[in-house]
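Propose amino acids for all 444 sites.
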């Protein structure tokens, strides 16, 4: 995510962070590099001009702080201005105090992932905010659009409002869905609208009519992050007709540039509320500008890692594992297999490592080795073992190693490596996972 921008900016700021003295010349050189990095990231020109102007103004007028070198102070300024450009505070959906049903309407161009975002948002509201959610599709034009949303709703465990796309108009469908949401006391009604262009007067008139009828508390514009600054201009055009309250950026995991994320807030004045970071239904993250700024500058996002862990590992499973390690109970290969599956559900090693501070500073050759092949090989080896071997790995002798290697398509050396890794992991019982997690939070 934003790989090119992260690499360029982190490299530029590393060159100045150790400077004991800032001069007009090295500030000028660094600012020029930052400007080039933002241009290559397809950030809108007005955003770049404003960003660079504020960085230069603050750098020249910064007070002396003995805790930082001048170079470190400059990096701190760049990070602070980057957070401002991204939108400062996170204003993801907060439904506290909103009388049910809270109506949330999603709009956008065709093909940007609107329907998928409705499914992901429904999953987020059900799992993270414990809301009863009803979803409805007003897209009677795209073939199988209604069926797609119905399938996604069943997949994530939220309710779907059935309609007749032939006999009913989009306005009729949404009106009836709202009545049902009120009658059955749903907390939230998510409305998926048909994709349309701002120049399509007929379709825009339809969406405006739907908006006027249901009076949503949130009107969210869904946009493809990979379209760069065009995404921001499209959102601006929509906002002139439809009163948008926020944005969902989709396909962020495939966006190496970051132009959309850095341009939308400045051009539209609307907060990015969520980011789609993968194909799975749980791959929707609230947008935290301060965390994303840290990632872009190569400073990592440890808080997101901790939240991913807390979501993925069920409380009772986490407590069981913590007790095992703290009490000195054995940590066997069956336990390791469970943790491997959790890691895969969190997006795998690559996703996890990208959020660690300093990862982007590692050589490209090292970064390329941090892929999911490692955990896939470990999983294959463990699956080739008997139940007794998983619980008592000390019984795995030479002949057993040959059998396990052959069954997994691996080598005996791979079996030895896995057993050695298990020994290393088992040493964690001296400190316990609870202590490790506490230390991580204290350092953030």
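Proposal:
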């Amino acid at each position: 995510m934003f790989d090119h921008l992260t690499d360029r900016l982190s490299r530029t700021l590393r060159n100045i962070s150790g400077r004991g003295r800032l001069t007009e010349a090295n500030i000028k050189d660094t600012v020029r590099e930052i400007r080039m990095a933002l241009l290559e990231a397809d950030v809108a020109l007005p955003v770049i001009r404003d960003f660079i102007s504020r960085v230069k103004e603050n750098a020249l007028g910064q007070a002396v702080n003995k805790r930082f070198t001048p170079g470190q102070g400059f990096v701190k300024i760049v990070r602070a201005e980057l957070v401002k450009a991204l939108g400062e505070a996170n204003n993801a959906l907060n439904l506290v105090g909103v009388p049910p049903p809270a109506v949330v309407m999603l709009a956008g161009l065709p093909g940007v992932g609107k329907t998928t975002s409705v499914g992901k948002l429904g999953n987020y509201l059900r799992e993270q905010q414990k809301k009863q959610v009803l979803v409805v599709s007003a897209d009677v034009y795209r073939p199988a659009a209604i069926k797609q949303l119905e399938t996604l709703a069943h997949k994530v465990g939220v309710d779907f409002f059935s309609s007749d796309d032939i006999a009913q108009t989009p306005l009729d469908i949404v009106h009836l869905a709202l009545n049902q949401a009120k009658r059955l006391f749903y907390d939230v009604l998510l409305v998926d609208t048909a994709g349309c262009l701002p120049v399509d007067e007929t379709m825009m008139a339809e969406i405006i009519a739907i908006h006027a009828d249901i009076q949503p508390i949130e009107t969210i514009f869904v946009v493809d992050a990979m379209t760069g600054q065009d995404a921001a201009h499209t959102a601006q055009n929509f906002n002139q007709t439809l009163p948008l309250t926020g944005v969902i950026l989709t396909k962020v995991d495939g966006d190496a540039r970051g132009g959309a994320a850095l341009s939308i807030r400045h051009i539209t004045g609307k907060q990015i509320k969520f980011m789609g970071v993968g194909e799975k239904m749980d791959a929707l993250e609230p947008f935290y500008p301060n965390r994303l700024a840290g990632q872009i500058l190569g400073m990592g996002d440890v808080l997101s890692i901790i939240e991913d862990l807390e979501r993925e590992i069920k409380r009772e499973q986490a407590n069981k594992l913590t007790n095992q390690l703290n009490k000195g109970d054995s940590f066997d290969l069956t336990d390791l297999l469970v943790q491997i599956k959790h890691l895969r559900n969190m997006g795998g090693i690559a996703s996890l490592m990208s959020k660690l501070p300093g990862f982007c500073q590692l050589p490209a050759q090292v970064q390329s080795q941090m892929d999911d092949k490692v955990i896939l090989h470990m999983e294959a080896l463990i699956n080739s073992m008997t139940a007794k071997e998983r619980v008592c790995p000390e019984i795995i002798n030479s002949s057993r190693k040959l059998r396990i290697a052959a069954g997994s398509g691996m080598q005996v050396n791979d079996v030895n490596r896995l057993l050695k890794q298990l020994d290393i992991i088992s040493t964690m019982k001296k400190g316990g996972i609870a202590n490790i997690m506490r230390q991580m939070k204290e350092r953030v």
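Residues 303-443 form a domain with the 434 Repressor (Amino-terminal Domain) fold (CATH 1.10.260.30). Residues 196 and 203 are 6 Å apart (CA to CA).
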